[in-house]
Amino acid sequence: MTDIETRTLEAPGATVTYDVRGDLSAATPEVPALLLIGSPMGADGFGTLASHFTDRPVVTYDPRGVSRSVRPDPGSPVRPEDHADDLHRVIDALGVGPVDIMASSGGAINALALVAEHPEQVRTLVAHEPPSGPALPDRDAALAAVQAVSETYRTKGFGAGMARFITLTSWEGPFPDDVAELPAPDPAAFGFPAGDDGSRDDPLLGQNLISCTHYEPAYDALTSASTRVVLAAGDESGQQMAARAARAIAKSLGSEAVAFPSGHGGFLGDEYGMPGDPAGFAAALRTVLDGDGPR
């Protein structure tokens, strides 16, 4: 088992905690350090995937406001640009030159923002299912659906908000214009409490939901970047919002999204939730990092 070294750094408004597996000095331009990131998923979601890359140093981290990366106001919104600046600081602290990144969901949004500002820090970015509403043809309806989730959380609490969020993320195909007016689902149907405990500091619903899903990639900056940017979507994700956004972003960059095994959490082992296909996901990721696939 690879030893894990935990490090911290101070960023404006947060203490960011990250973990290093392997020997950073072993990173080379051909086989650089690999960052595995999500948002709001933290380092604890990537243990299984990291175990498939013992040939290189692997770095995972907790985004600000999640788990060990504390900040004074945990419920206030955080922009993708703020997360990107944290990632910029982590990569700079590693001191091993450009890295490869596999970023999933909100982490993919944040990594796209990072590459737009600091392309020199990233050799290859695999952006797996970034849920960008503005990337979609039905952007207005998609953003209205997200706003409905946020409003439900604000007025009714975590259980009701999560029930609506799951309905949003599992929706197949374009959103209808009246999606925000559809009846709210029953939290109990998803195993969530119907009551409201009054808290509004959830990292997903309170901190990242709006800023993440409303982020529009900087296409000109990404197209001109030295970074190889590869969009990816799960082959079981169908026409769900995040997968559709991955394909739309790839098209805007003049490429096509690469199909990865399983769904939105395809890299997950037994960390939590439904397992994906981490071995298959790792094999697909290795193929892309080795240079087989679109720019």
UniProtKB/TrEMBL annotation:
Question: Where is each AB hydrolase-1 domain found?
Answer: 38-176
Give the top-rank taxon of the lineage listed in the UniProt record for this protein. Answer: Bacteria
Keyword S-adenosyl-L-methionine recorded:
no
In terms of SUPFAM superfamilies, this protein maps to: alpha/beta-Hydrolases (SSF53474)
Q: Where is this region: Disordered?
A: 62-83
Q: EC top class, in one word?
A: hydrolase
Q: Would I find Hydrolase among this entry's keywords?
A: yes
Mention one GO biological process in which this protein takes part, according to its record.
glycerolipid catabolic process
- Report the transmembrane regions from the record: none
Q: What EC designation does it have?
A: 3.-.-.-
- Please name the InterPro entries in this protein's record: AB_hydrolase (IPR050471), AB_hydrolase_1 (IPR000073), AB_hydrolase_fold (IPR029058)
Alphabetized, the UniProt keywords read: Hydrolase
Q: Which GO terms describe its molecular function?
A: triacylglycerol lipase activity
Q: What is this protein called?
A: Hydrolase
Taxonomic classification, please?
Bacteria, Bacillati, Actinomycetota, Actinomycetes, Micrococcales
